[in-house]
Design a protein that fits this description.
By secondary structure, the chain is mainly alpha-helical. The protein is built from eleven helices and no strands. It has helices spanning 2-14, 16-19, 27-37, 44-67, 70-82, 93-116, 120-144, 151-161, 164-173, 181-188, 192-209. Helix 4 runs antiparallel to helix 9. The radius of gyration is 17 Å and the shape is globular.
Length: 210
């Protein structure tokens, strides 16, 4: 409950509702998603951080889907690829806010990881997020260029944009010694259980929305 209250304060202070009114407010939805991932008291901190990632990922998805021009999205994608707070001068204000928030959340995650001496976890979590925004950009590029992808092209990208791989990887991040380095290496290889979950999520989402 404390993590939920702290996240509410964090979200209100960001004031996305005013500064990025086109984004969805999915904080409460995200929290209940994450409670389904792990509800045990010892994972309170991990729940809070993963809820933040879920919420900011939803906002990033909205930027790619509904608001950014293709040129802006190209710069935004490149900025996330660089992962450097000093390289955002060329971004529009709404993207700066989202970008800084993303880096700050990941900084929180890295601080928690460092306490446990699990430094290797941070780099994998970053790689998965970078892969996520590359897929968002590919979809945006199709839309702006009026390109209709083949089923094979579509699925290769759309399985990533479900976000399941990012959420799965980050959920393991906060589980302490229960999750070993070997487990993270296994996840990094996109095992079949994760790719199958992505497939089910994509098909269910597309069926629902069409």
């Amino acid at each position: 409950m404390l993590a939920k209250l702290m996240n509410c304060r964090w979200w209100k202070e960001l004031d996305f509702a005013t500064k990025l009114p086109f984004t969805r407010n999915r904080l409460v939805e995200g929290y209940f998603w994450i409670v389904g991932v792990y509800f045990e008291p010892q994972y309170s901190c991990a729940r809070g951080l993963l809820t933040k990632v879920f919420t900011i990922l939803s906002a990033i998805d909205d930027i790619y889907d509904a608001y950014g021009t293709l040129e802006e999205l190209k710069h935004f994608t490149e900025a996330i690829e660089r992962w450097d707070i000093n390289g955002i001068d060329h971004l529009p204000e709404h993207m700066k806010l989202c970008y800084v928030t993303l880096l700050n959340v990941y900084k929180e995650i890295e601080e928690e990881i460092e306490k446990e001496g699990k430094h290797y976890r941070g780099s994998l979590c970053q790689r998965k997020m970078k892969n996520q925004v590359r897929a968002y950009y590919a979809e945006a590029n199709w839309f702006h260029e009026e390109h209709i992808p083949t089923m094979e092209e579509f699925m290769r990208v759309a399985l990533v944009t479900t976000g399941y791989t990012v959420v799965t990887t980050l959920s393991l991040m906060g589980m302490g010694d229960v999750v070993t380095k070997e487990t993270f290496e296994w996840v990094a290889g996109d095992p079949r259980i994760i790719s199958s979950s992505n497939l089910m999520a994509r098909l269910m989402d597309d069926i629902k929305s069409h």
